[in-house]
C-alpha cells in the first residue's frame, strides 16, 4: 500500500480563473488580510467580509475544474484508498472534477457557520451577517472558512495521514501559511518522498526532493500520467 498525501493551494485553481492570494494582483493585493481573513476583521466589519466571500463564491460557482483537478481525480480512482487530498482551497473544483476524499483544511465557500451556536449549513450564494441561523435564529452568520488565528479543520485526519505518508506532493501553493507550509519538511524527515509541482519555486522549495515547475494544467497531468 503506497500512501500518497497531496496538498493543494490556490495555484491549482488559477487556470480555472480563480484568483490566487500572493501573486501579482492577487486577492491580498485587493484586500488587507487582517480585514477579510481574521476573526477581528469580521467583528469590525462583517459586511465587508461577506462581500469578499460572496464575490469569491459567485466566481467559484461559475468556474470549471481544469486538467490538474481532473488528473488528481484519476489518480485517486486508480489508487483507491491510497490517496489523501488535503486542500487549502475553499472552492469545490476538486469535488466537481471527481475527487471524493477531499479535506478542506481552511473550510469551504459552500459552508455557512453560526458564530453564536456553531451550527453549520449549506451556504446560500449570497450570505449576510444578519441572516438568522437556521438552528438558534441568532443573526450570527459567517462563512465556514478558517481565518488566521483559527484552528484548521480535519487535523485529526491530516496529522496521521502525514505520519503514514510514503509520498507527499504539494501543488500550487506558495508555502507561506502554516501549518500546511511545514508538511513537506515533516514528511521528508519521516522518510517520505517529497514532490513540489508549482508554477515557480515556493518559499519552502528546499524542502522537496523532486520539483517540477510550470502551469498546473501541464505539470500535474504529466506527473500523474
Ligand atoms: C493556525 C482563509 C494554530 C480562507 C486563509 C508565525 C510563524 C508560523 C506561523 C504563524 C506565525 N504567525 C501566525 C502563524 C499562524 C498562521 C500563519 O501561517 N501565518 C503566516 C502568514 C505566517 N496560520 C494560522 O493562523 C492558521 N491557524 O496556525 O492555528 C494551530 C495549528 C495547528 C493545530 C492547532 C492549532 C490558519 C491559516 C488559515 C488562514 N486562512 N484564508 C480563504 O479565504 O481562502 S489563508 C490563505 O492562504 C488561503 O487559505 C490559502 O489557501 C492559503 C495559502 O495560500 P496559497 O494557496 O499558497 O496561495 P498563494 O497565492 O499564496 O500561492 C499560490 C501559488 O500558486 C504560488 O506559489 C504560485 O506560484 C502558484 N501558481 C500560480 N498560478 C499557478 C501556480 N501554480 C501552478 N499553476 C498555476 N497556473
TrEMBL record:
Domain commentary: 2 residues (Tyr-53 and Arg-56) present in a large hydrophobic pocket are probably involved in substrate specificity. They are important for desuccinylation activity, but dispensable for deacetylation activity.
Domain of life per record: Bacteria
Subcellular location: Cytoplasm
Binding site for NAD(+): 9-28, 88-91, 172-174, 198-200, 216
Lineage: Bacteria, Pseudomonadati, Pseudomonadota, Alphaproteobacteria, Rhodobacterales
Binding site for Zn(2+): 114, 117, 133, 136
Note describing how the cofactor binds: Binds 1 zinc ion per subunit.
Name this protein carries in UniProt: NAD-dependent protein deacylase
Chain positions recorded as substrate binding sites: 53, 56
GO molecular function list: histone deacetylase activity, NAD-dependent; NAD+ binding; protein-malonyllysine demalonylase activity; protein-succinyllysine desuccinylase activity; zinc ion binding
Ranges where the Deacetylase sirtuin-type domain occurs: 1-225
Function: NAD-dependent lysine deacetylase and desuccinylase that specifically removes acetyl and succinyl groups on target proteins. Modulates the activities of several proteins which are inactive in their acylated form.
Family annotation (Gene3D superfamilies): SIR2/SIRT2 'Small Domain (3.30.1600.10), TPP-binding domain (3.40.50.1220)
Active site feature: 106 (proton acceptor)
Catalytic activity: N(6)-acetyl-L-lysyl-[protein] + NAD(+) + H2O = 2''-O-acetyl-ADP-D-ribose + nicotinamide + L-lysyl-[protein]; N(6)-succinyl-L-lysyl-[protein] + NAD(+) + H2O = 2''-O-succinyl-ADP-D-ribose + nicotinamide + L-lysyl-[protein]
Top class in the EC scheme: transferase
Taxonomic source organism: Roseovarius faecimaris
Entry's EC annotation: 2.3.1.286
One annotated Gene Ontology cellular component of this protein: cytoplasm
